[in-house]
Amino acid sequence: xDRENEQxxxxxxxxxxxxxxxxxxxxxxxxxxxxxxFELVRRQVERxxxxxxxxxxxxxxxxxxxxTARRSLAIVLPIVILLIVYLSWLILR
Length: 93
Prior knowledge:
single chain; 1 helix
């Protein structure tokens, strides 16, 4: 019986070792998958940051255009009103 118990213990230890090897292989695969997902997320974040920076630049440019348009309107509108008044005066005279 002693020899038989030793063989069972050896078989169990081998089975434990094999299971641990399988678990380590599974953990390696999981880690590889997590690393690839992390890399994908990192690239997406970088792309999002670039898009955000571009949007901010476009928004700043748009605000500059609006500021110029307001200044132009402040100059052009009184001139147009004066021309309309002058034209009306010429027609009604």
